[in-house]
Amino acid sequence: MNSPDIQIPRKLANQLLHLAQLSPDAEVCGLVSSRNGLPDRCYAIDNVAEHPAQRFLLNASQQIAALAEMRERGEELFAIYHSHPTAPAIPSSTDLKLAAYPDALYLIISLDTKGILEMRGFHINEQIAQEIPLTLSED
Known about the structure:
With 139 residues, the protein is of the alpha/beta class. It has helices at 10-22, 60-73, 93-98; strands at residues 6-9, 29-35, 38-45, 76-84, 105-110, 118-125, 128-132, 134-137.
């Protein structure tokens, strides 16, 4: 089954990649909202995992506040993003197990590259990941 590409605005992609670069030793995480079905805004959320270098756990109060702000702005949850400081941009077994939003895109940013950051998107449902091609669009 072929999935259509998802257009990510270049400005948003650069923001996500920059956030990952600011934290090379711990996973960064957050939400991406959409407006009219198009990715629009990044909501950075603190990673409160016990071992943030290996996994992420969204700060619950910040997550609730971000979702409330999205509703107030007329936005919807589009994606959940996190980085992998030392692993490829593919879902880990923990990512698959803990994925709780089957309608959201999961964006994974890898810092485990030779000078080029990698970001890939997946839909995860019942611990099965389907990669969704990403393309950059101009704002």
